[in-house]
Amino acid sequence: MKRLSLLMLLSLFTATLTFAQQPDFIENKLDAYIKQGLKDWNLPGLAIAIVKDGKTVIMKGYGVRDIKTNEPVDENTLFMIASNSKLFTGTALAQLDVDKKLSLDDKITKYFPGYSVYDASTTPLLTIKDLLGHHLGTKTFQGDFTFWNTTLSRQEIMNRMKLLKPSMEFRQSFGYCNSCFLTAGQVIQQVTGKPWETYIQDSILTPLGMSNTYPLTIGIAARKGVSKPYTNAFTGQMVELPYDQVDNLAPAGSIVSNVKDVAKWLTMQLDSGRYEGKQIIAWKALQKTRDENTIVSSRASVVYPMHFRGYGLGVFEADYNGKQIFWHTGGANGFVTNTCFVPEEKLAITILTNNDNQSFFEALRYQILDAYLGVPYIDRSQAMLKNFNPEQAETVKKTNDMLARVKGKATELPLAAYAGKYQNPLYGQMDISVNKKDLLIKFSNHQYLTASLKYMDNGEWILTYNNAAYGIFPLRFKTDGAKVVSTEIKVNDGLEFDPYLFIKEN
Asked: Which of 129, 185, 214, 469 is deepest in the core (most CB within 10 A)?
């Protein structure tokens, strides 16, 4: 009897300890919170994994990966993790640094002698670490309309970076730069003889057993269990999108994965580079990725218990209620994702979603951090919705108002006057042709992207892309008498913030 009682007490203690390790929100409220979030944010599907104390305590899918077939999301459902690929690149380069194959302080011209950026005085100073730190001086997303989803090769993108005119000082400001990460990633092939994707596969994905993770987007539509990408931006109506093809920017954002595999990557991050007892990445290499490379902000957040935010080599870092956290988000057309790890708490989170027009994927991450790190409960999702819903309603109203103005009115000039070739120094050429009573735009570097121009009134047109992720915007032509001089082309801010000025050639 005494032995039985002792075993029972031990069992009860163990059960109590296990329960105590999981906050009440995680244990009893997370499931309902996510289901409500999917409804509130019009989110078809979500997959989540939480790692705590070396074990995956949550790994689950919610909603659907295909709104037509209602096939459910599960832990094996594939998503584009987009910029969550960046830490893989930073980690690979940090490991090569530890292995004395390169130095993160090497000048980029050591590997690409002909490479240059806009400022000739910056070019000879630019290091691998600079490229990984987003402090070139360019604006966030600058150049991405030219580079993202286009037929330009990796080398052609690198060549065009000299056309990206900085608006900030080199090494003084944070401006998120995908083409910088591409350039840094290309050093891997120069050093190892392996393309980025092969090196990432051989040195990280395979050793971690990430057997259902793919370093490139090519062939994504045929992958078993892949989620469809969706958006309801601009119109409020859920639209399926084509899959992004961004292998030309691979080191910045091309990995396709699922929460089951990402959890392995995060478990390794929490165990000083080890996974299942084997050292996959040197601890010194992980430390280098986490060393603050760029100051993002040193001002206290008015929303979160954070005071300082910085960027390492492919990962953000901050304090959060007294703990150091590391995280990154990823955004591709139709997908937004995040990863987060808190080494002091042996905690990691990944959330993958299939509607790019929502912030629930971030609200949920903060809600989980709050639960584990002792922050008093605030419904993060509802707080974010208070801003999102009015903004979304205003965007939809603007779109509907523009559509209502298309009534077949006569244009200021004959349609043929607008047709012709237009040039932008960075992008290159776009062609405008007459399409019955409207105009059609074709972009030279985007194989599948087109846009229609329908006349509204007062010299204003409505620009609608065939890929809904790019958006719907008003457009004007600058004219000189009966001659069309130029026009500005805008895309969704998630692709690039500033419009492109295209000059008409003929």
From this structure: 185
Query: pTM here?
Result: 0.95
Could you give the 3-state DSSP secondary structure of residue 295? strand
Answer for the pair 133, 177: CB distance below 8 angstroms, yes or no. Answer: no
Q: Distance between CA 72 and CA 432 in Å, rounded?
A: 42
Share of the chain above pLDDT 70, in %: 96
The rounded distance, in Å, linking the Cα atoms of 481 and 458 is 16
43 Cβ contact list (under 8 Å, min separation 6): 37, 63, 353, 354, 355, 358, 360
pLDDT digits (tens, 9 = 90+) for 390-444: 999 999 999 999 999 999 999 999 999 999 999 999 999 999 999 999 999 999 9
Strand partners, 310: 295, 317
CA 410, CA 371: separation in Å to the nearest integer? 60
Q: Helix 380-404 and helix 30-40: axis angle, to 10°?
A: 10
pLDDT range class, residue 506, cuts 50, 70, 90: confident
44, burial (CB in 10 Å: exposed 0-12, middle 13-18, buried 19+): buried
CB 13 within 8 A of CB 19: no
- In this structure, what token pair is assigned to residue 183? 């350039």
**Which residues, in sequence order, are bridge partners of residue 478?**
486
CA distance 462 to 490: 11
Residue 361 structure tokens: 């994927």
Query: Beta strand 309-311 with 294-297: parallel, antiparallel or unpaired?
Result: antiparallel
CA–CA dist 247, 152 (Å, integer): 10
The type of residue at 397 is K
Residue length, the chain? 506
Instruction: State the Cα–Cα distance between residues 108 and 169, nearest whole angstrom.
Output: 19
Structure tokens at 210: 């990430």
- DSSP β-bridge partners for residue 226: 78
Q: Please list the helix, strand and coil fractions of the chain in percent, rounded to the nearest 5, in that order.
A: 35, 25, 40
Helix axes 360-373, 380-404, angle to 10 degrees: 170
User: For residue 17, is pLDDT > 90?
Assistant: no
Rg of the chain on CA atoms, in Å: 24
Question: At 424, which helix (H) or strand (E)?
Answer: strand 420-424
Burial class (CB in 10 A: 0-12, 13-18, 19+), 122: middle
| Nearest of 95, 127, 130 to residue 207 by alpha carbon | 95
Cα–Cα distance for residue pair 87/272, rounded to 1 Å: 15
How far apart, in whole angstroms, are the C-alpha atoms of residue 65 and residue 354? 7
Continuous segment of H or E residues that includes residue 9 = helix 2-21
C-beta separation of 331 from 229 below 8 A: no
Report d(CA 247, CA 182) in Å as an integer: 10
The mean pLDDT of 456-477, rounded to a whole number, is: 98
